[in-house]
Fold this sequence. Notes:
By secondary structure, this protein is α/β, with parallel strands linked by helices. The chain has two domains: 6-259, Aspartate Aminotransferase, domain 2 (3-Layer(aba) Sandwich), CATH 3.40.640; 306-423, Aspartate Aminotransferase, domain 1 (Alpha-Beta Complex). The longest helix is centred in the middle third of the chain and has 34 residues, at 250-283. The chain contains 16 helices and ten strands. It has helices at residues 6-9, 15-18, 30-47, 59-76, 94-101, 119-128, 151-160, 181-184, 250-283, 307-313, 317-326, 352-373, 391-394, 405-409, 413-417, 431-434; strands at residues 51-53, 84-88, 105-109, 133-139, 164-169, 188-191, 211-213, 302-305, 333-334, 341-344. The protein binds pyridoxal-5'-phosphate. Pyridoxal-5'-phosphate is lined by residues 58-60, 92, 94, 139, 143, 168, 170, 192, 207, 209. Residues 58-60, 92, 94, 139, 143, 168, 170, 192, 207, 209 line the site of pyridoxal-5'-phosphate (PLP).
Amino acid sequence: MKLNAAAEMIPITDPGFADIHPFAPVDQTTGYRQLIDSLEQRLLDLTGFDAISMQPNAGSQGELTGLLVIRAYHTAHHHAHRDVCLIPGSAHGTNPASATMAGLRVVVVNCDDQGNIDVEDLRHKAEIHRDKLAAMMVTYPSTHGVFEQSITSICHIIHEHGGQVYLDGANFNAMIGLCRPAAVGADVMHLNLHKTFAIPHGGGGPGMGPIATRHHLAPFLPNHPVVPNVGGEHPIGAVAAAPFGSPMILPISWMYIHMMGDAGLCRATQLAILNANYIAHRLDPHFPVLYRGRNGPVAHECIIDLRPITKATNITVDDVAKRLIDFGFHAPTMSWPVAGTMMIEPTESESKAELDRFADAMIAIRAEINAIESGRSDPADNPLINAPHTAEELTADNWTHPYSRQTAAYPNPAVRANKYWPPVSRVDHAHGDRNLICTCPPIDAHQTQSNV
Length: 452
Ligand SMILES: Cc1ncc(COP(=O)(O)O)c(C=O)c1O
């Protein structure tokens, strides 16, 4: 997870940013507009695109907006019938969801064994749908953690068949300062400012998913019914309630970009890639890395494969994630984009010491799995399947497990220096998400004294 530095966060507490109504008269928001303009310009410089809309509030909303812009472009060129959107099997789930919401028909493109888009399958499907092809959505670098080596040919094939290329830029952290998405041939992309540009991410908090486009799509960018001078000349309408999405959080990205400077942003990208490769290198002998680029390295993240372990020992990715809590870690992304795996994106923000602490914990967990595999540990009662261990359980008079309390609570020496005490043990996994459970009090609890 990227660091959200205090210096980036403090400006949003300033009433000048925090207390402005989104529809405040334009002459009262000139400072805000200056900040938005300057951030827009920096994002255009970094992406290589020509125009930008700050309206979408999330990456997914940026996808919908970008696809609506593409549809408007086709309509303006008398190609409103183009309604097929090619999406590779490696895509984030929001891609097909956004395409469907934009009224497009999703056609899935296969990936090869290395996680890359299968270019022959792409060419074949582009050919089949050539009269109806509206767009392709491609994530670069991909959610498989690889730089698609064929990205420029992919864009070329789509253009040849009359489509537009939507680049999902959620992984832009692996590109800034090294290359520009417009240069690979994309027509429009979204940026996750809440991922790449230091806005705190997760927990459903406000995000920003601006879209950047080439000249030919700029006329269709969203406008706003209340606030003038927003969007293109033939806008698709508004996609969010406010003209610039959630502008209150833009000072965070502005501060991040300006404090880092060009050299700092480039260095962050290099470190993010280096860190992901360091983790891949340390973990691979213990948990094989699923996908790699042609020459061996991964991009900004790596997927480690736990499926052979699960097959051999019944220890699942959930068990490893829960055991990581005993080591003081929140688990990385689980079972996505490949079920039964873990995806690790350290970003540039983690120090080598922290990466080593994490790798050491994972390697120690692998040793615990080995013990189950070799019969030294009970497959039905071991530190993994009982994790996480709470203070209440560890300090209870009754301890019945075949391993020690010490093994449970302090699985390696690093944990002693900074022990995190999990407040709860496992409850019921995703059971509550998948089953409607009524938590209302029983009906007789509502019975009042008067009608007893
Ligand atoms: C590759 C990719 N695309 C799209 C999204 C959607 O972004 P958001 O969660 O802001 O809607 C994400 C989110 O993490 C992502 O990783």
